[in-house]
């Protein structure tokens, strides 16, 4: 679509979590940039929990584009 590889903003997520009284989280992600993004808006990430989903007929196209744009997973 022409967007940057990871042009996300975590401002709204941070505001919602603060409004709910959530000051820290265990974040399920393989992307360390998500950890940085949340911490930059004041949400403390106490743990990053990695997870892997196998490739299947429903996500293979998405995963191929992601590999092409961002490289293989760490």
Give the end-to-end Cα distance, rounded to a whole number of Å.
24 Å
* Structure summary, number of beta strands: 2
**Helical/strand content category:** alpha+beta
Q: Can you list the strand order of the major beta sheet? A: 1-2
Element-by-element helix/strand order:
HEHEH
Can you count the helices?
Answer: 3
The radius of gyration computed from the alpha-carbon positions, rounded to a whole number of angstroms, is 14 Å
Mean pLDDT, all residues:
87
Largest sheet: 2 strands, parallel
Task: Characterize the overall form.
Answer: elongated
Which regions contain 5 or more consecutive residues with pLDDT less than 50? none
Helix percent band: 25-40%
Q: What portion of the residues fall into strands of 2 or more residues?
A: 5-15%
Task: Provide a descriptive summary of the structure in words.
- This protein is an alpha+beta fold and 74 residues long.
- The protein is 39% helix and 15% strand.
- It has 3 helices and 2 strands.
- The protein has helices spanning 11-19, 32-40, 60-70, and strands spanning 24-28, 44-49.
- A two-stranded parallel ribbon has the order 1-2.
- It is elongated, with a radius of gyration of 14 Å.
Write a brief structural summary.
The protein has helices at 11-19, 32-40, 60-70; strands at 24-28, 44-49. With 74 residues, it is of the alpha+beta class.
Keywords:
single chain; 74 residues; two-stranded parallel sheet; 3 helices; 39% helix
């Amino acid at each position: 679509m022409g967007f940057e590889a990871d042009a996300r903003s975590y401002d709204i997520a941070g505001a919602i979590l603060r409004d709910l009284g959530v000051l820290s989280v265990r974040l399920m992600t393989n992307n360390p940039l998500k950890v940085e993004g949340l911490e930059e808006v004041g949400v403390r990430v106490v743990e990053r929990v990695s997870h892997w989903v196998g490739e299947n007929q429903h996500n293979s196209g998405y995963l191929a584009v992601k590999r092409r744009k961002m490289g293989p997973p760490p």
